[in-house]
């Protein structure tokens, strides 16, 4: 049985899973197209800068048959949360996707703190600069509620890793002395929104970050797979705390069409394919080598089942990559 056959839907992160910047991840488009029409597929992204239509158009450009309704952004989840906080005027710090999501929920938008907004909602956009961040700070210090779409510190682009919304939120935090509520991953809100929109109850979540995708899936009670085509490295997986550990470790999303090779317990550790790792006193060591994903699966199984925090173990570096 293929890994994906255990689930009634698929929730995919975008940056680092389907594409990286403007380039498609190898094998991702083919995998999605094979599943299209056979199960509900949702695209769950913390990027709030673009509308559902804009994101769907980008995915279509890669050759994916997708409808805007399959896109679930942190902007949508945040706008829904905003309705629970206020019915007043809103100052939007972000892109078209966030503005449209707030308008769709019936809010009146204002442009500056001089308009006395009841709430500030903040999301990532490459166009956000000092002036907008300052206006947010003025409004929040004057009593406006503060909600942010997500807290991703970085985003993966084709040129490398760039600052994300969490970095921009930290700028405002410095000026106002408090943190906002968050709607996107790792909050369960965005996953609840996605399940309701797609009519599914047991999807598999695919992501490239333990601190947002995987932690968020765990918060929502959903199984997840961590892929290594974006931000995450082997070190992130093996050192993940209990709340941020994925159910599966995959090189890329294309492996969901294969049977998952569950690591097997040995006398002193675990093996995965050709790789074997063991816990000897406080040392986690390679006993047999294998591919990097086999070594990582074996090493993670040993560490995660040891009952000891990662900082209490001496882990051989061959088991992961940085």
Summarize the structure.
The chain is an alpha/beta fold. Helix content is 31%, strand content 22%.
Structural domain count: 3
Question: Which class of secondary structure composition applies to the elements?
Answer: alpha/beta
* Total count of strands: 20
Main sheet, how many strands, which sense, barrel?
A: 6 strands, parallel
CATH class of the largest domain: Alpha Beta
Order of helices and strands: EEEHEHEHEHEEHEEEHEHEHEHEEEEEHE
Low-confidence stretches: none
Question: What is the end-to-end distance?
Answer: 32 Å
Report the mean per-residue pLDDT as an integer. Answer: 95
Strand fraction: 15-25%
Structural shape: globular
Number of helices: 10
CATH-assigned homologous superfamily of the largest domain: HAD superfamily/HAD-like
Strand order of the largest sheet: 5-4-1-13-14-15
How much is the radius of gyration in Å?
21 Å
Stated plainly, the CATH topology of the largest domain is called: Rossmann fold
As a percent range, the share of helical residues equals: 25-40%
The CATH architecture term of the largest domain is 3-Layer(aba) Sandwich
Describe the structure.
The chain has helices at residues 28-35, 52-61, 74-85, 96-104, 130-141, 165-176, 189-198, 210-219, 234-238, 292-304; strands spanning 9-12, 19-20, 23-24, 41-45, 71-73, 90-93, 109-110, 119-122, 145-148, 154-157, 160-163, 181-182, 203-207, 224-227, 248-250, 264-265, 269-272, 275-280, 283-288, 314-315. The chain is α/β, with parallel strands linked by helices and 322 residues long. The chain has three domains: 3-46 and 186-257, HAD superfamily/HAD-like (Rossmann fold, 3-Layer(aba) Sandwich), CATH 3.40.50; 84-182, HAD superfamily/HAD-like (Rossmann fold, 3-Layer(aba) Sandwich), CATH 3.40.50.1000; 264-319, no CATH class. The strands form five sheets. A six-stranded parallel beta sheet has the order 5-4-1-13-14-15, sandwiched between helices. Strands 7-6-8-9-12 form a five-stranded parallel beta sheet, sandwiched between helices. Strand 4 (41-45), helix 2 (52-61) and strand 5 form a beta-alpha-beta unit. Helix 3 crosses helix 4 and helix 5 packs across helix 6 (165-176). It starts with 8 loop residues before the first strand and ends in a 7-residue tail after the last strand. The model has no long low-confidence stretch (mean pLDDT 95).
